[in-house]
Amino acid sequence: MINPNAKQELRRSTRKVRRAMSKEEITEQSARLVNHLLNWKPYQEAQTVMMFLAMPDEPHLEEAIKQAWAQGKTVCVPFMHETPGMMDAALIRSFDDLIVAQYDLLVPNPATLKLVDPAELDLIVVPGVAYDRTGNRLGMGAGFYDRFLPKATKAKLIGAAWSKQIFEDVPVDPHDCQVGCLLTEEGVIACCECSVKS
To answer: Which residue, of 3, 40, 137, 197, has the greatest Cβ tally within 10 A?
Structure first.
């Protein structure tokens, strides 16, 4: 049984480090991270991909989304429901399909929402507060991805984070999902063969 405070303590310390990054640092490291993704064979082979719309201190994936459209891929982003912990994959064909929501974050426009079955996704780029090198993930604590990812039965899961968010060991519970690889500004790290814990 993990220390119930361990997750909160790691979230707090890691987010503090992330928030200390400058805009220039985030822009430069995001470009490197995206370049590693675009050159990763599983991404190149994927036809239907899901990426996240970043908070200010997360890796920014807009350029990867643009490139995916240019390559004819189907692109989805998360749509969080008002029901706690529930989300879907929303199809976007341009950034015009997004609106500015709370905290100036971009989200899919509910008025034009088109959902994609998670089972159709080939690849999901997963955000996280912290990861370890075996693919364990610490999220924000709301459980959106831990509920969603098991439905994406064929998708390869790659966790996107800054290298300073990768630790030797991350506290997890049995319901927490793993990713198969990690994507940082330094490159792609293979973690495990499985994409979701059984």
So the answer is: 137
pTM: 0.92
User: Beta-strand (E) ranges in the chain?
Assistant: 48-50, 74-80, 87-91, 98-100, 106-108, 115-116, 123-127, 130-132, 137-138, 156-160, 166-167, 181-184, 187-190
Beta carbons within 10 angstroms of residue 104's beta carbon: 8
Using alpha carbons only, give the angle 16, 49, 142 rounded to the nearest 5 degrees: 40
C-alpha–C-alpha distance, residues 169 and 70, integer Å: 38
**CA 118 to each of CA 15, 42, 48, 66, 159: distance values in angstroms, whole numbers, following the listed order:** 29, 17, 10, 21, 17
Q: Which has the higher per-residue pLDDT, 75 or 172?
A: 75
